[in-house]
């Protein structure tokens, strides 16, 4: 199997950095939208499918070869991604940009446990120490914004549910990417996730059209930046990296989102948060170095 370096001659860390920067914009765009979380997430995914559709015909032969068992797992992965977006985006209505992504730092723990049980992937002691360092840094970024009662607690709990859902999505994606291309996997996962959200919107009687032009612009930005350049890139990386390693890279989101929120949303950022961000980045870098990036 060729590595990304052999096929593109671009270091793997370049794609990791691109993905982290892209997903860091998610919280900002969601804050800009006046639509409900479920509608925002649905259009984010379905517009991504529209952008990918002109290239789908190139993968016709591969699509025909996908087994029905793989289709079921793709649907399950899509459902996990859809629920992740639903819970996490809704959490931003009740808590801050710093707090909600920080809770997502629990994702690597869920993924690492699942990777051990499903794939037998073991993690070295230095990698575990690195994970702890990174998670402490990420949680410290949002610590001052955590709430233990009221709507803030509701937002943090929704973020936790979204974390569990995306861990399921990540583990299924790791197994599927062993024999399905990133494009085919991503297209149908995004489509199934969007369908799950569309069904939810029908059940709760959400409007599909009554949104200002600004919201449609936000939907498109969410499709292009954090979905294509974020989630699609991470789906591609699952071919070459362990699921736990890909999960660790997304720990950069709390720092990126907090910095963007400072400049774009006027949310405060403290010196302690900056120091925590440095700690986070050190932990992530150490983990990727110690945790056999190659899957």
Provide tags for this entry:
295 residues
Indicate the radius of gyration in whole angstroms: 18 Å
Q: Span from first to last CA?
A: 11 Å
Gross morphology is globular
Helix content: over 70%
Unreliable segments of 5+ consecutive residues = 146-150
Count structural domains: 1
**What characterizes the major β-sheet?**
none
- β-strand percent reads under 5%
Number of strands: 0
Main location: membrane
Family: Belongs to the EamA transporter family.
Membrane topology: Multi-pass membrane protein
Subcellular location: Endomembrane system
Would you give an account of this structure?
Helix 4 (37-52) packs antiparallel against helix 11 and helix 6 runs antiparallel to helix 10 (150-176). This protein has one domain (11-290). The longest helix is centred in the middle third of the chain and has 27 residues, at 150-176. 50% of the residues are buried. The chain is mainly alpha-helical. It contains 15 helices and no strands. It has helices spanning 4-8, 12-24, 26-32, 37-52, 60-65, 68-91, 99-103, 107-119, 125-142, 150-176, 182-203, 213-237, 243-249, 252-264, 271-290. The chain is globular and about 45 Å long. Its main location: membrane.
């Amino acid at each position: 199997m060729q590595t990304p370096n052999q096929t593109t001659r671009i270091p793997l860390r370049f794609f990791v950095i691109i993905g982290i920067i892209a997903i860091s914009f998610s919280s900002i765009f969601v804050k800009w939208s006046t639509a409900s979380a479920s509608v925002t997430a649905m259009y984010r995914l379905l517009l991504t499918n529209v952008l990918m559709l002109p290239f789908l015909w190139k993968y016709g032969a591969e699509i025909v070869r996908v087994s029905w068992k793989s289709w079921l797992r793709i649907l399950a992965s899509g459902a996990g991604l859809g629920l992740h977006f639903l819970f996490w985006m809704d959490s931003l209505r009740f808590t801050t940009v710093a707090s909600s992504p920080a809770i997502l730092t629990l994702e690597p723990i869920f993924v690492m446990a699942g990777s051990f049980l499903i794939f037998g992937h073991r993690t070295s002691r230095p990698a575990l120490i690195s994970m702890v360092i990174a998670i402490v840094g990420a949680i410290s970024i949002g610590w001052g914004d955590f709430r233990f009662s009221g709507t803030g607690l509701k937002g943090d709990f929704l973020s936790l549910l979204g974390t569990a859902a995306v861990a399921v999505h990540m583990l299924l994606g790791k197994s599927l990417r062993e024999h399905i291309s990133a494009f085919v996997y991503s297209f149908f996962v995004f489509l199934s996730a969007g369908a799950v959200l569309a069904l939810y919107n029908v059940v709760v009687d959400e409007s599909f059209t009554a949104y200002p032009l600004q919201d449609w612009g936000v939907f498109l930005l969410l499709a292009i930046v954090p979905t294509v350049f974020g989630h699609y890139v991470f789906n591609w990386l699952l071919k070459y990296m362990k699921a736990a390693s890909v999960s660790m890279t997304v720990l950069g989101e709390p720092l990126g989102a907090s910095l963007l929120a400072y400049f774009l949303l006027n949310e405060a950022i403290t010196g302690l948060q900056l120091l925590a961000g440095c700690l986070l980045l050190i932990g992530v870098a150490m983990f990727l170095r110690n945790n056999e990036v190659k899957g």
